[in-house]
Amino acid sequence: MDAFDYAMFGSGFRIALGPFKFLYQNSKWREACKITHAFADKYVQKALEYRQSVISDSSPHDKNNDDNVSRFGSRSKPLLYHLALQTSSPLTLRNEILQALMAAQGTTAALLSNVFFLLARHPAVYQKLRQEVLALGGEEPDFDRLLHMKYLQNILKESTSSPAPLPEIPYPPPFPQLHSSHPPIHSFIHPLVQLQPPNQPPNTALRLHPIFPQMNRIALHPTTLPRGGGPQGLSPLYMPQNTIFDTSSYVLHRQPSLWGPDANIFNPDRWDDDNSESGNGKMRWQYMPFGAGPRACVGKYKALGETAFVVVRIVRRFEGIEGRDGREWRGRVALTSRNLWGCKVGFWV
């Protein structure tokens, strides 16, 4: 795990450097990637052996029958084995399982840390949440029940959008005007330029502290964005093939034009009238801590469900919470973002 963690950190740093990632020459990072790849490749090889055994044991009729268990394997097989039935590319399979590891590694823990960091600084919010939790009585809520606890979900949404952290790398960036000087083929905007707007109030957790600080996409074909061009950014904008799109959820989640004058304030009540989960909410596209659309993070509900369950159990058990660390939230940004100082709080019964 040490190698995996270091590979994650180095990869996040390279993403931040964008087209200048070649400047990051770190032999320790390359060795960490090598160890991580070797670990993943052992399981990829087993999955490919499973694929071969299924193909060998299946009749032509089996191979064309999507409902046949022998074609797709037992439901108890690992996800990687099912992926191997869709592709024989070792590189694709390795990338898929490393992506799953990156998404699962520390995501729930970081979200829990952010939630309790904010609750410790907003005792009235904690007490209101506790009333909702105590209304359950002795019921142990299942996944669906957790997702329908309105105030709890408001807190989780607001928590993943709290104030932007300072990165644990030199700031400001050494090339803050990169987006204006780089060739048009790369529409790259350095994500750290606007991480900490001046005079930002410190009391702002998925809106305020997104676990995934930025998202990248590449245009596989020439395309035109409906907005983004012209002096006001309201005209269509042509993007050639291979253009890199680098979006910052930190900036998106703090735009006063989208969130109002209290954009930097922790306020779970702002979500009371939102219906974003149904696809019709006013915040569907301005709030994207897990991305949006067909390529949104597949682990979204896993992270939210685990976090909600732990929060309910703790809030039910303890009457109050207080902070034990006066330092403000400071981000350590790799592929995911978390508080550099951790979360030091105290509970009382």
Poorly predicted regions are 59-73, 162-204
Largest sheet: 2 strands, antiparallel
Which geometry do the CA atoms define?
A: globular
Count helical runs: 14
- Gap between N and C termini: 36 Å
Helical content band: 40-55%
What does this molecule look like?
42% of the residues lie in helices and 10% in strands. It is mostly helical. A two-stranded antiparallel sheet has the order 1-4. A hairpin with a 5-residue loop joins strand 2 and strand 3.
List the SSEs and their pairings.
Elements: H1 2-17, H2 27-57, H3 60-63, H4 69-72, H5 79-84, H6 90-104, H7 107-120, H8 123-134, H9 143-147, H10 150-159, H11 178-181, E1 214-218, E2 223-229, E3 235-239, E4 244-248, H12 249-252, H13 256-259, H14 300-317, E5 320-323, E6 331-333, E7 337-339, E8 345-348
Helix pairs in contact: 1-2, 2-6, 7-14
List keywords for this structure.
two-stranded antiparallel sheet, 10% strand
Task: Briefly summarize what is shown.
The protein is mainly alpha-helical and about 350 residues long.
